[in-house]
Input
Amino acid sequence: MDEKLGILRSHIEPVLQEMEIFVDSIEYVKEGTYYFLRIVLDKVNGIDLDTIVKATNLINPIVDELDLFQDAYILDVLSKERG
Output
């Protein structure tokens, strides 16, 4: 699983760097009956909701193209929580 997440990270980081966004973490987890591909993003001075939406629109086609996970899952892109 770590290999798949590493592949995904290597594909999305260059695209997000253009927006000065950093990938904090990526995890593929099962919660209840659902699987989540959770990508946590960060940016200097934080990320607003509009930026998360733009980043999601860049990430989604990459995830679809790579097709790394067999199970149906929910793509969950969020910002890193700040203290």
